[in-house]
């Protein structure tokens, strides 16, 4: 299953033109739908261009590249108010706190995976906090109640404990 940390940074090519149109700079989750809605792409250096691609334009997610249908599917950053609104709402996953509905802080979300066909969230991977001794947690997306600005609220029975090696590639936010 695709994961945020694996997809971020991949080159993006177009199926129709065969051109590289940038690299995946970020994945933007629609918190109400609980699914990835947009890919934010970056092309060029520090002052390069940013574009958005809706996930409906994704042809395939490979190990080395993401392929979208066509360059016509890209939107320049100021011309995609839907994507900009999701980012402005600051209801992202990576680095956000995971908290149970009873108020127990579980840690910070370091990665997530989603289904390749619908882009629906499948699992969140949470780095350990002080009350979870050295274990990474896997939270099924079905147990997520709210993706908020300050925390992701999950049901109390959502937590599956696992060892860090079971969740390779998780980068713990500083």
Could you give a quick summary of the protein structure above?
This protein has 174 residues and is mainly β. 7% of the residues lie in helices and 45% in strands. It folds into two domains: 4-88, Roll (SH3 type barrels), CATH 2.30.30.240; 97-162, PRC-barrel domain (SH3 type barrels, Roll).
Structure in words:
By secondary structure, the chain is mainly beta. It folds into two domains: 4-88, SH3 type barrels; 97-162, Roll (SH3 type barrels), CATH 2.30.30. Helix content is 7%, strand content 45%. It has two helices and 14 strands. The strands form two sheets. It has a seven-stranded mixed beta sheet with strand order 5-6-1-2-3-4-7. Strands 12-13-8-9-10-11-14 form a seven-stranded mixed beta sheet, with no helix packed on it. It is elongated, with a radius of gyration of 16 Å. It starts with a helix and ends in a 12-residue tail after the last strand. Residues 163-174 have low confidence and may be disordered.
The stretches of 5 or more residues where confidence is low (pLDDT under 50) are 163-174
What share of residues are in beta strands?
35-45%
How far apart, in Å, are the first and last alpha carbons?
26 Å
Number of helices: 2
Mean pLDDT score, rounded? 87
Indicate how many domains the architecture comprises.
2
Query: Widest sheet: strand order?
Result: 5-6-1-2-3-4-7
Question: Radius of gyration, Cα only, in angstroms?
Answer: 16 Å
CATH topology of the largest domain: SH3 type barrels
Say how many strands there are.
14
What portion of residues is helical? under 10%
Sequence of secondary-structure elements: HEEEEEEEHEEEEEEE
CATH class of the largest domain: Mainly Beta
Biggest beta-sheet profile: 7 strands, mixed
Taken from the alpha-carbon principal axes, the silhouette is elongated
Tell me what the CATH architecture of the largest domain is: Roll
